[in-house]
Amino acid sequence: MKILFIYVTFKMASYSIPFWKKSPFLRLLIPFTVGIIAQWYLQVPLHFCWSVLGVSFVGFAYFFFIPAFERYKLSMFSGIFSALIFLSLGAMLSWHQDIRYNKEWFGKSYQPNDALIVTLEEPLVEKNKSFKANATVNVLFRNGKKTPAEGKVILYFKKDLPEGQADSLLQHLKYGSQIIFRKPLQEIKNLGNPGGFDYKRYALFQGITHQVYLKPEEFGILETKNGNWFNNFLFSVREKVIGIIRKFIPGEKEQGLAEALLIGYKDDLDQNLIQSYTNTGVVHIIAISGMHLALVYWLLSLLLKPLQRKKQICWLRPVSIIAGLWFFSLLAGAQASVIRSAVMFTCIVTGESLAKKTSIYNTLAFSAFILLCYNPYWLWDVGFQLSYAAVLSIVIFMRPIYNWIYFRNKIVDFIWKLNTVSIAAQILTVPLSIFHFHQFPNYFLLTNFIAVPLSSMILLGEIFLCSVFFIPAIAGLVGKILSWLIGLMNSYIQRIESLPYSLWDGLQINIVQTLLLYTIIAGAGNWLLEKSKIGLKIALIGLVGFMLLRSFSFINRNGQKKIIVYNIPQRQAIDIIQGRDYRFTGDNDLLQDDFLRNFHLKPSRILHRISVDPKTKSTQAGNNYFIFGSKKIMLIDTSFFFSESATPTPVDLLVISKNPGIDILKLARTFDIKQIVFDGSVPSWNVTRWKKDCNSLGIPTYATIEKGAFVMNLQ
To answer: What angle do CA 293, 425, 518 make, to 5 degrees?
Structure first.
């Protein structure tokens, strides 16, 4: 179905008129996007944006009052003024979306002893050690004074409770529930490890700035509710769908994938399974996207086709299709990728009902413009970027690739179409995938060829299951078939992953190199499709620039010598790097647990271009004292006895891990310490106590739990 959709939309684009002239929203989208980016990174004052908007609007309006000939001569200035208008609008929308600029944001005046009333935005989500929910701040209490407030926080509720208390907690804390608490909030911070995920920015883009962990005695549940009926209806439908899946589809892994595939519920997904889908290039199956909307669109079009034959009620067909698409999109969590598809399909259905053809480029630009007006920060969403890159890539490159080979046999021709979709989609998504995920699935054709049609069958089967759940005999049979199909797809994905050279891992490019890759693609595409020599020159210039930057990066990394003390809660992890080799000292579970290693250590090792070997063995610290280059390093993670010396041993860096029984004052009499680092495994109360001793001795300290990972050059 995805192929049919792409083919139809591709045919909409006429070759006679340049797409640039047929895509006015694309011309508006570019300055609008630049304005959003400029505001986030430069923090432009709002009054300056208003000034630019006012001057640009007056300049643009002036062109309507001058003769046509003069207007034509000065058309370039008209374009500049219109670009400045949308640039300033993008900056202003970005400013207003930032909760920190909101006058009623609670973070402007919040103090640790203040009480807050918050409303749960979602049902509780079960985690390993807690229940989690996002909440909106409504009221701030200080000294008995009530102040309206805005903002969002993450609530964690204690999970390890007696059975009766746990059941009561789940029963009373639902979407719309209001609670009051006084426990101090914690500002959301990043772990600060090199190359690590910027969780603080991710949360801020959703308006979330703080978090808190609550025990039952630390909050009270109010009788009032503060939810709207539509969201309550959506959550109840989601719970009903999840209940049907868990009842009729056997197997925890199968249930988790079925929930993600149908409604985008990912909390039950197996982490190792997600990694397998990522490594083989089919993680897009799990994320609700255009493929899912295409299937829903096809199904609704088929079911509502009889309405098209009756002129009096034919208008019901497009209205019902659009309503069905948006209901499914909201039910699936209203993520950027699915909303993009919903907007695009809405344009297509509207155009078809009005018997008008639309440019696919203009449709894509329009949907992106609408989404960014709603939330400018979706521009940084990886799903948003990959979704548009994939569709645009298919639209541009699918037909030329398909024309490479002609097959008379319809079955072989259909198989070739499937492969052309996968090949075309990769062209514009590869640079983004390497930039964000640092890897490339070498066997993506093999996985997509089976996984895409199989997942489509599973999705349609799940929709059928939800429509016949009230007939247990049929629903049970359908559930078993779906469980078998999901298991078959999972085993196929995992077998492909286990093949030699299935994944090209450890790739590292920066934003400039990413842009150069797109320059190469644009130039080479223009050369191959339009026979343009200028395109070839641009591609070659981009290639030379990319190779020079990459070569410089490798040369720079070959000479590096540094120590990295990671900030990992309750764990010890240290990398000593020389060139592109490293020695790891730390807890063994970081090497044995794929998720912990990939999340905490792998991004830094990719960033520094050092070998990433899962079989690397750790060196237990004990009481290590060693010399690296010109630096003398000492590592203490266990208690030990030492005697005071008349001539203290020089130590450039002392790393303290875990909870050793040491006295900093006595330690300073034995060693001449220039820097002390407390890693993430040191209890916070010990950090506070030891920092006081260090301050009294004039020894510089660094606590990773406060400042993130410690990086020291050892040159």
So the answer is: 130
